[in-house]
């Protein structure tokens, strides 16, 4: 390729670069502005305050952990004493805790307002356990009794102390023993306690271990309706005879129980994209048939002590976001995050799609049409007056130069017809000039 043709091709490419590069810069600028409004990606690691490793909270949290891991989220489990401990951790901004399981009734209204509720997950009945063969004693007659009320900072201790206090029983007239559930169970079986309370799911390994002990039996709490009327966060449940163990017939009779609900709680800054994912994991664990609840009873937005998270409310109303139903979580989240960029991009691309094609056609045609200015000038001069041989020679040289330059012009195939028309017009003027050059002097 000769230098002149290379120069023409380079000039053409620079023209196209200026045309389309300007459009590309506008699009890039639009993307840069939109990126300022794109939500940050959700974290890949979150933490949850649970409870004792053998308690229901911890066991359920392990199942959430496995489900979330399938979606690339690592859930760190933090062992605690129970609900009161969990609530305290959630209310300490310096502690790196994102989620917690908290028993209903534990948080005050002021404390609840600082956190975000994701719903309730399962019932936590109050279990009253005594030594096998013991005579049932009404709670308002437990003066002087040795009573296991659960570990320090546990939901069991919090709830049982309120129930006992309502019955006039406190540390002034009874021995309220604060210790772990397993230790209390051993002391009850040995006769060192008269009774003990456990608040928790019937799926709790510790509870199942206690009711399996032949030295321990379940008792009816009594007056369940009265407790439910006094405390709106309590629900009345019926545990039919033999539900826990058909072979040993545990319990030995139908029990009317009161139960709190376990709340799933998040910090207010918990990433919105993770709400539906966490609730989907909870639904996978809790939505089936259970001893104390029917299928699809949990998780639910009802019976929660905490203000319902807006993303959780959408989950309970419509289920998981549409994209998360059909796509892997991280793909769905990426699409959801960048959709905010579509508005400015469309606002730029729509007018550009209408402007660039005509501008492109004009730039291509301009490579051809601008030669016609010189051709018209030569044609008018040939028609205007008698020209001497010297002037005719200069015009001939000018036409030859135009012909050489046009031969170097590069246009897309679709515009070749216009380029060949230009060459025909150049040839026409060359022929006209040739006739004038050969004509006798004065005939021009």
Automatic annotation (TrEMBL):
Domain of life according to the entry: Bacteria
SUPFAM superfamilies in the cross-refs: Periplasmic binding protein-like II (SSF53850)
InterPro entries, sorted: TRAP_TAXI
Family annotation (Gene3D superfamilies): Periplasmic binding protein-like II (3.40.190.10)
Name the record gives this protein: C4-dicarboxylate ABC transporter substrate-binding protein
Source organism: Lamprobacter modestohalophilus
